[in-house]
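Good day; I would like, with your permission, to put a structural problem before you. A protein sequence and the structure tokens that stand for its backbone fold form the material at issue. The record follows directly beneath this note:
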Amino acid sequence: MKCDKKIRYLLAFCLLLAGTLIFIVLNVCIGTVAIPLEDILASIQGYAIQNERILWDIRMPRAVAALVLGGALALAGYLLQTFFHNPIAGPFVLGISSGAKMVVALVMVFLMGRAFTVSSAILILAAFIGAMLSMGFVLVMSHKVNNMSMLVVAGVMIGYICSAVTELIVNFASDAEIVNLHNWSKGSFSGMTWDHVAVMTGVVAVTGIIIFLLAKPLSAYQSGESYAQNMGVNIRLLRMALVVLSSILSACIVAFAGPISFVGIAVPHLIRNLLGTAKPILMIPACFLGGSVFCLFCDLLARTLSAPTELSISTVTAIFGAPVVIWIMVRRNREKMAA
């Protein structure tokens, strides 16, 4: 039985790694200008090719950004679902992404209007403040209501409020550069540079390592707070870590790509079903890979379905992620009825 489980885990990780590699190649090759795989291999070996700038300055950083931020989004969703013990908790649903988006929009408009340069660090900090504000509201509500469904509704409402404020900021901004803010607010991996990739990779890598080191306390926490305390886990410190780490990941995603819906909810459930386990030591790396595959796939469709016009990434993720959420809710309702 243990051997069968190990084989399943191995096959699942091989599938996720293969999917990640395949979709990176497809994202780089397919587009308005097709780049053959032979040209990519030749460019890697140092030979000059016709569309070298498109390959290295546009498509490659965009593909890597989708990989890194997609994985971060799935990880943030997994942490929030673990924290709230709620299968539909996620950065977008709980309004955390919207809060981050609102503060980033305020900072961008304020600084751009005064000819300041908006660095990646400022954007991440602004998004983190917005994420923490929304998370603070959700935490206050979690102490006021016992019903987790009401908590999700409260998160959705704060998300709508933050989105409305953001739209007002975008509409009343006078700077010509704020047109980019409107496109960013819909969610997109376009316009990524290697500088952006370096910053987001550093933030996500450090955060991801810390999350992986928390695998054992998280495993105890999943079995119940009383059990975790008996195992010597500092519940208060762990919950604080989950809040901060999920907010950092959400902030990084929003700062660079804007709010992206449903990935943080759908991917952890798909991965849990693929692995057949909820062990954090397996779920953490698998969720990251699953989020990467999902976002690479959705970004490919966003770029190609109505080319040369580009769809919002959230439009595509919602098409594939929303049915998963509906399935989760239906299955949970059936389980309650059976009990």
User: Anything to note?
Assistant: Residues 3 and 93 are 38 Å apart (CA to CA). The first helix runs from residue 2 to 29. The two ends are 28 Å apart (CA to CA). The chain has one domain: 2-338.
